[in-house]
Design goal:
Strand order of the largest sheet: 2-5-7-8
Number of strands: 8
Radius of gyration: 40 Å
CATH class: Mainly Alpha
Order of helices and strands: HEHHEEEEHHHEHHEEHH
CATH superfamily: Outer membrane efflux proteins (OEP)
CATH architecture: Up-down Bundle
Distance between the termini: 25 Å
Strand content: 15-25%
Number of helices: 10
Structural class: alpha+beta
Shape: elongated
Largest sheet: 4 strands, antiparallel
Oligomer: single chain
Length: 451
């Protein structure tokens, strides 16, 4: 089992364990029997990154509602009760009241209590920025949804790799158990030969050493597998105390299945490319938004109020008189000069759009590289898998023949030990090649947008 494969699992544990740190602990332990597709479906519902990506979609929906709301009528109610503790006095010519010319009299105008209540309404008739926001709503939702798809695709790729790594590891444990059983049998046969004087004690010691090495390798492999299951559970968003049983198996034919169909590729099949194109469209909306901000803004507003006045606090009684006050206004705001800040914003948005377009070109080059690399790696992995499969069968044949020769006394202990080492090496190489082929297949399908 390759060390770097489990390093990846360890890193995944660190990354996703932080994201799932707030997951409540439960004492109910459940057992899950999952195929690969069931594991992926579980992750798409419980993985924190996927859930947050879906929440981003809901967040964008609410932001769209906010933009839409600005285009609807804005209606509000108002009310005010005022007590004028000191009314202002005004100077008027005293001769109005029989006084001398040139003299002034102080008169107090107003009442102690006033009250108003009513409703106001405003309706936006045209605003270029709001208009652009309304146009961009669908693209913004699709942008968030595409981001969620990209997130799900990455989770699928990681789960597939770890899932099949654990499946292959299970077969390696079965192989180790088989080898341990064979060494035990060989040791028993060697003990019988030693008791009858046909073998030396060192021959038995050699088998004990080999048996100890196999048991140590099994212990290490089991520990790595347990850690691998922890990494897979955390990646899926599953409580680590739950039991997870993998039900799928992997074969050479499974790895090669569906590859020919994936060879027909177009850039638009890649979700990250679709995501980038939507980002470009949003950049164009950004430029439009700033351009439209130069256009006049037109709105309609009006209000209807009732007002009451009295020198006593009886304005809410039946003796008070309420007079209506209303008005309707058509409002026009024309931007004339703002220090060229709008032009600067437009140029900034254009530069950002060119950066996005450059990133799209770079993404296409990177996709071409990924596909070609994936094709090369997959072809190499399949060839190596076929070679290692044939080599393992040949090593098994050599070992069986060497063992028969040894049992009838025409072979040596050195020959059977060497045949055994060659068989174990061939078996290990085959399962490493099998896992490498799985990884190469996943990378190939992801590169071609078929995962």
């Amino acid at each position: 089992m390759r060390r770097n494969s489990f390093i990846i699992i360890a890193l995944l544990i660190l990354v996703f364990n932080k994201a799932n740190a707030q997951q409540p602990v439960t004492t109910d332990i459940q057992t899950h029997h999952f195929s690969l597709q069931e594991a992926i479906a579980y992750a798409e519902k419980n993985n924190v990154q996927v859930k947050n990506a879906l929440l981003d979609v809901q967040l964008q929906e609410q932001q769209n509602r906010e933009v839409t709301g600005s285009a609807y009528p804005q209606i509000s109610g108002n009310g005010q009760l005022t007590y004028n503790a000191k009314l202002p006095a005004s100077l008027v010519p005293a001769e109005f009241f029989g006084g001398q010319p040139g003299e002034f009299a102080r008169l107090v105008f107003g009442v102690k209590w006033t009250s108003t209540g009513g409703v106001s309404l405003s309706q936006l008739l045209f605003d270029g920025q709001v208009f652009t926001g309304l146009q961009a709503r669908t693209t913004l939702i699709e942008f968030r949804e595409k981001n969620a798809e990209v997130t799900r695709e990455q989770i699928r790729a990681n789960i597939t790799k770890i899932y099949y790594q654990l499946v292959v590891s299970k077969r390696q444990i079965e192989l180790l158990d088989s080898n341990i059983a064979l060494i035990n049998k060989l040791r028993r046969d060697m003990k019988i030969m030693y008791d009858n004087g046909f073998a030396e004690g060192i021959d038995i010691d050699k088998q004990d050493v080999r048996l100890a090495n196999l048991k140590s390798a099994k212990t290490t492999a089991l520990n790595q597998i347990n850690n691998g299951y922890l990494g897979l559970k955390v990646l899926m968003g599953m409580p680590v105390q739950d039991e997870l049983v993998l039900t799928d198996h992997i074969s050479d034919d499974d790895i090669k299945e569906g590859v020919l169909e994936a060879m027909n590729f177009d850039y638009t099949q890649r979700r990250d490319y679709q995501y980038a194109l939507m980002g470009e469209k949003l950049g164009e909306y950004d430029i439009q938004r700033y351009k439209y901000s130069k256009l006049p803004q037109l709105s309609l507003s009006g209000y209807y109020n009732q007002m009451a006045q009295s020198n006593k606090f009886d304005i809410f009684s039946g003796h008070s008189y309420w007079s209506p006050v209303s008005a309707i206004s058509l409002n026009l705001h024309i931007p004339i000069f703002n220090g060229f800040s709008t032009n600067a914003k437009i140029e900034q948005a254009k530069i950002k759009l060119r950066q996005t377009q450059n990133n799209i070109d770079a993404l296409k080059l990177n996709i071409d590289r990924e596909i070609q690399t994936a094709v090369n790696d997959f072809k190499s992995a399949i060839e190596d898998l076929d070679y290692q499969k044939n080599n393992m069968a040949l090593a098994q044949k050599v070992y069986d023949q060497t063992k028969k020769k040894y049992e009838i006394g025409t072979g040596s202990q050195l020959e059977i030990n060497q045949a055994r080492v060659d068989l174990e090496t061939a078996q290990t190489n085959y399962y490493n090649a099998l896992y490498n082929a799985v990884v190469a297949r996943v990378d190939f399908l992801k590169a071609t947008g078929k995962l």
